[in-house]
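Box 4.2: Ligand-aware structure prediction
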Amino acid sequence: MRSYNLIAPAKINLYLEIIGDRPDGYHELVMILQSIDLADRINIRAISDETIRVHCNHPQVPTDKTNLVYRAAELMMKHFPEAAAKYGGVEITLEKNIPVAAGLAGGSTNAAAVLVGIDLLWNLGLTQTEIEELGATLGSDIPFCVAGGTAIATGRGEQLAPLPNLDHIYIVLAKYRSLEVSTPWAYKTYRQEFGSTYLKTTEDLAARAAAVHSGEIVKAIVHKNATEIAQKLHNDLERVVLPAHPQVLQLRELFATQPGVLGTMMSGSGPSVFAIVESEQQGQVVKQSIREAIPDEDLELFVTRTINHGIQIAS
Ligand code: ATP
């Protein structure tokens, strides 16, 4: 039976602004998403019976129908019943390297990999846009994860406009293993506290979303200038997550005072925090000094870098 090994990179948010409410209950967002070199590995294999089997090496990740990879495979089976009948089911093996429930789109990138993998296994010949549209029905971050790189994401996060590649900017990433922040909680709390400031009219929302294209951080990305980018990082969700989680606030403050750190921010709904640094070597120095300041084994630290791709077949 055929199988594919896929690489599914995590993302960070260089920018996250909540601009309003949507009739579907989600928020109108303006984000800049960036793929990073920290990635899960996924094997997807055709099996003769029409079932979906999931295996994972991470104890926090479910292997039942609640795993996003299961839902992605189920979606493909429903959408392409003739191919499912012809090729059978799939067995998916996840090697998790991306911290779970971290604001790094771990589940979303796995789901994107399964959509790409099944397209290959079943010779469907889908376009990138078709895969992204299927992904958007499962989760707002999935479309970005398909092609990855650097992009502006608006709407729920599923409307994408690519930006120039930003590879080789070095990042130090920190996440407490046992600390999880629920994305729905973060957005609900933000609405309760700051909902009165939301833009109300369709015109105002569209104008705000359009304005990001000429915004300061986009200019910095076009210049490929890490120092400028680091100064323009922004995440509205820090306003609710940092006060609720002193450990995350402490990490954020510690990163900000490290020599060689150009800028620091929480990613997505947290609780992971990242810092942009000048070089890989500087990243190792920063990682070491954070480790010395917080000698807690629960704290995971990574030195990684920005990359210009999403799902890839492993060579
Ligand atoms: P996002 O940045 O898209 O909000 P996240 O990085 O915060 O996502 P995930 O790592 O995707 O969060 O995990 C959120 C929850 O989803 C976890 O608590 C986990 O139980 C569940 N989950 C389902 N499928 C997966 C998967 N393939 N990988 C990781 N978690 C998964």
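In the box above, the bound molecule is adenosine-5'-triphosphate. The pocket of adenosine-5'-triphosphate is lined by residues 61-62, 66-69, 100-108, 110, 141, 183, 268-269 (CB under 6 Å).
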